[in-house]
């Protein structure tokens, strides 16, 4: 920790007593910073910079969590908290404050209290079983949360803690280190393997409670029955015990068999461990834990976790996840008679893992950089919107080096070079490392992610190629020879400077470390920055005999006191494995169409103090659009959650409240939804609009044909006019069959027309949505006022015909971002359904508020289809005589809407074939 960080922590400690009573003011900060003792201890720290940093720290806020809780869950903590010592929590709190004085420890205290209050009081006698889930954000600090919860749970009386930490050795080991530091207080590997007591983390603070671990942070430190027997500390005794295990069949089986020695038969003949309160934390609970089989043919991991819980008569199970989609589809039905054989022991499987008792939704702090900040988001329901930071860069040049589909025909055709965009990404990483040094981050970790394929052979080859490129870049920077220095200068001036300016203008929180620099200052740090960078191949293969690239050492940031700068080339171990510290540049081409996998692969989410402006994501247009949709779906899901929480609803009420993608994305693996092959969805009160348009000629022509076909069946429109002429056509009583026909014929990868059609037909059967308003938005102006490519051009006229008339009118315009294959309305805001469109068929005496517009639509109960034939001149790839057709739908609110069930299987499309997971070989248990 450098002087500046140390001084910041000391200031936070001095300010803590003040914060406990009231908000911190600028005068408070100045008084602490100007304390002579502080100046004496940290003479090199700039006073103004320290004041600015503390101001920023105290601006960070976190909203209160919300929860859905079963009525059977009764609060208990408030009545018992005065009688509990809280010694483990107090030392964890002290450790966190020492490690990072700016950490919002009071928020963590409140949140963990709320979660513990929903767990069963461990002093409760008799048998009990509690199931819950905590929903956070990707890379937002869930490990710190459940580590705090574990400390409090042990203080309250839980005797055994089991943390199930993902499916990879690297993640399990990384989690064990965090548990060692934040809960046990000893290096578990030293204690178990070498019988040495090496105090770390919370171990530096006094506590009378001694905690024993059956697992260690060693690479092979997962649960082993032989080692557990040697430790010879019984579960349920005076000393609390903990295990951190991988989500693996053989590990779970061995643990269950070892625990079985403590079990006896109950009156029904079932094996039970009595009166040992156990808390089971399932980290990344959406991954592997959810049953992808049937109620009887249960998949192994799910079956074994349920068997483990069933072995205890007192248990609390909490799944932690940022992507709860699969967990919400866990069926409530399960077979009470289902048994399983674990080796030669017959045991009960028990209830499935749906969080029936509680779900807690934790909002991230205000300085969290998540999907909404990276990709942009707008929620019409809440009015919340983000434009998205300008840190995404296109990587559309992957062919022929990185084929979009790797299959049996080309899997052995390894690349002999890399795309130009990957070379640019490496240059961006070098600049980032140099600028961070300039900003005083010289001893901080720096990471770059390269994720282009799953197969070990591909990871190996790409790592070798990246290393060769880096070797050449190092040579050019150190020697001053070649073109690289000029290329770096151009990238800095044309990309980094404008991006920093943009981020400074649009970042939702203040960060005093973000500054504009000049090239001369940056260039002076290039040699030191690039010299520290190394390339690591991240996969499971340990034998290097058949590998080209041999630097496959596990990425352990803790070994590098002066900071590690690494380019990590990998596959799934990067997607759902290690956390990449100081991640700034990501080169990401891997495709998946599942909400949960997409979000979990977003390792670029998290906290980026002092360098968010330097971060870059190189990826494809298609992936960006998918992420943008998943972001919208996730934010809407969270908003629905908060709304339901305000109504005191239960977890099962939320079970099917996940928005479905109207195109090719699947919520989660279809096999995890076997019991729910038909998903329920409702569009009551919803606004749906197109904001992404395919540029291919057949689709543009086909959608225009569908539009003209609709007009041919309509007659006698109401002509809505401005003082310049007709600016809209309106029909107020169109039959639903015409709307269904138009939606069915409209083609887009981002519109699930089969779902919309079936939903309307279902509502028609209940005498709803039978009569529609249909509006066509036109342009009565002379010149186009939209910013962008069409700004200032004369409005293009077009002929519109219906069966008893026609009109020549102007085409509306939108500022569309042009991609390789698609056009997109920036931010998706008001793509089709702007304010004028939302009220076009409603009559008001004066200018209405948004709330009045909604109320009137709901009162009249009439849905609206808005069609906007857009000016195609925005793209040279389009025929300027064929409008680009967009549409929007507005559904009125239905009281007690009956949701519609529809088949959840995603559209069948070409997709990368998973031929080999990147560390299957090493999944040894």
* Continuous helix count: 29
Mean pLDDT: 85
Instruction: Give unreliable regions as ranges.
Output: 656-678, 902-925
Radius of gyration: 30 Å
Arrangement of strands in the largest sheet: 1-12-2-9-8-3-5-4
Strand content: 15-25%
Output the structural class: alpha/beta
Global morphology: globular
N-to-C CA distance: 37 Å
Largest sheet: 8 strands, mixed
Total count of strands: 33
Give the proportion of residues in helices: 25-40%
Would you kindly provide a brief summary of this structure?
This protein has 925 residues and is α/β, with parallel strands linked by helices.
Describe the protein.
The protein starts with a helix and ends in a 22-residue tail after the last strand. It is α/β, with parallel strands linked by helices. The strands form 9 sheets. The chain has an 8-stranded mixed β-sheet, with helices on both faces. A 6-stranded parallel β-sheet has the order 15-20-19-16-18-17. It has a 6-stranded mixed β-sheet with strand order 22-32-31-26-25-24. It contains 29 helices and 33 strands. Helix 11 links the parallel strand 4 and strand 5. Helix 2 packs antiparallel against helix 4 (47-59), helix 16 (420-438) crosses helix 20 and helix 17 packs antiparallel against helix 20.
Question: How are the SSEs ordered, and which strands pair?
Answer:
Layout: H1 3-21, H2 26-33, H3 36-41, H4 47-59, E1 66-69, H5 77-80, H6 87-99, H7 105-118, E2 128-135, H8 142-156, E3 160-165, H9 169-184, H10 188-193, E4 212-213, H11 225-231, E5 241-245, H12 249-259, E6 264-265, E7 271-272, E8 278-283, H13 300-310, E9 314-321, H14 325-328, E10 339-342, E11 345-348, E12 358-361, H15 371-375, E13 377-379, E14 384-386, E15 392-394, H16 420-438, E16 446-451, H17 456-479, H18 484-506, H19 519-523, H20 526-532, E17 533-538, E18 565-570, H21 572-575, E19 583-588, H22 595-600, E20 616-619, H23 621-646, H24 651-654, E21 678-681, E22 687-689, E23 692-694, H25 697-713, E24 718-722, E25 725-735, H26 736-745, H27 753-764, E26 771-777, E27 797-802, E28 805-810, E29 816-818, E30 822-825, H28 835-838, H29 850-860, E31 864-870, E32 884-890, E33 900-903
